[in-house]
Amino acid sequence: MTKIQSVTNTIINQGVLPLYYNTDETITLEILRSLYKAGIRAVEYTSRGDAALSNFTKMVEIRNAEMPEMLLGIGTIKNVKQTEEYYKVGADFFISPGFVAEVAEFLIPKDLLYSPGCMTPTEIIEAENAGVTFIKLFPGNALGTGFMSAIKDVFPNLKFMPTGGVDTTKESIESWFKAGVSAVGMGSKLVSKELMLAKDYTTIENETVKVLAIIQTLK
């Protein structure tokens, strides 16, 4: 099995990809531990601040020491320079808010999963022709489940994951899976700024357990 397929399978099996960013290294690591304890085995850390690379490097170190099954992905990748930086420190997969052809050219020959954000059929076609197999529908709240339902038959060989606007409720999650997605990306609805500020890692863990349980009932 290729590494791309293995990472894809892990994300699909858990059905949700939690994503977050925090400037504080300790908070970043404690959230990672909470997600791992909840049963998460793939997580996206977003490159949205000056501390992102150093925090991610520490995450890889802690993962290697404490949670060998965890796959660490980096999000908000916009160019090859960023990609190379995170590749060097050991990112397992890469996610963009949009499709960047040069990033696909760098990652796919290395058997590394690249999931670009797409919101039009043209963008999806470009990504598919570049070898992408896992599409991030972004922003999910703007596109909606109707968009997914309308395009899924046109792209039978692709897997889709919406990010943005997916709630932790069964109704929200179920509507996306019924529309044809393989997983849902979940950021502030799951790991909220309030919970991070309060350092409420127990609630983050408990809410993640609930989401994983909901997804299992839908499969």
From TrEMBL:
The record's annotation in Pfam families points to: Aldolase
E.C. number, please? 4.1.2.14, 4.1.3.42
Pathway field of the UniProt record reads: Carbohydrate acid metabolism
UniProt keyword terms in alphabetical order: Carbohydrate metabolism, Lyase
Which EC class is the enzyme in? lyase
GO MF annotations for this entry?
A: (4S)-4-hydroxy-2-oxoglutarate aldolase activity; 2-dehydro-3-deoxy-phosphogluconate aldolase activity
Entry superkingdom: Bacteria
Mind telling me which SUPFAM superfamilies this protein's record contains?
A: Aldolase
PANTHER family xref list: 2-DEHYDRO-3-DEOXY-6-PHOSPHOGALACTONATE ALDOLASE-RELATED (PTHR30246:SF1), 2-KETO-3-DEOXY-6-PHOSPHOGLUCONATE ALDOLASE (PTHR30246)
Q: How does it assemble?
A: Homotrimer.
Tell me which family the UniProt entry assigns to this protein: Belongs to the KHG/KDPG aldolase family.
What is the recorded name of this protein? 2-dehydro-3-deoxyphosphogluconate aldolase/(4S)-4-hydroxy-2-oxoglutarate aldolase
Query: From which organism does this entry originate?
Result: Chryseobacterium sediminis
